[in-house]
Design brief:
This protein has 129 residues and is α/β, with parallel strands linked by helices. It has 5 helices and 5 strands. A 5-stranded parallel β-sheet has the order 4-3-2-1-5, with helices on both faces. The protein is globular, with a radius of gyration of 14 Å.
């Protein structure tokens, strides 16, 4: 059994990267491997927005990320990349005098240090985007 970390640079929609990362993550778990963390960086942080509202006939990737989190997978967004792109939690929204946060509760904001720590203990790191 291997321990994986997945690094996502692609947005929720507009490219295949996030979808491929999600499917890979599901396959990792289905094969009995451990998925320590999915880290979202650059435009990948858009996956963490609670405001994603795909049409009813489109794939709702945000719901699938939440389901992955419910299986015990840590979903971590780079805080700096998220703030630059308008993805903030309630605390950051208050600090920035914004109306509300939009970080999906399944995700946490963190730093690259969290990714590096997880990657250092992983057998495999796979990047999408």
């Amino acid at each position: 059994m291997s321990r994986f970390v997945i690094f996502v640079n692609g947005p929720a929609y507009g490219s295949q990267h996030a979808y491929s990362a999600l499917r890979f993550a599901e396959a990792v778990l289905a094969q009995g491997h451990q998925l320590a963390q999915v880290f979202f960086y650059q435009d990948g942080v858009h996956n963490a927005s609670s405001l994603l509202s795909p049409a009813s006939d489109e794939f709702a990737i945000n719901k699938q990320w939440r389901a992955l989190h419910q299986q015990g997978v840590a979903l971590v967004c780079c805080a700096s990349a998220a703030l630059r792109r308008g993805v903030v939690d309630a605390e950051a929204a208050q600090d920035l005098d914004q109306v509300a946060g939009n970080l999906d509760p399944a995700f946490t904001l963190g730093g690259l240090g969290e990714y590096v720590t997880a990657a250092a203990t992983a057998d495999r790191v796979v990047q999408f985007g």
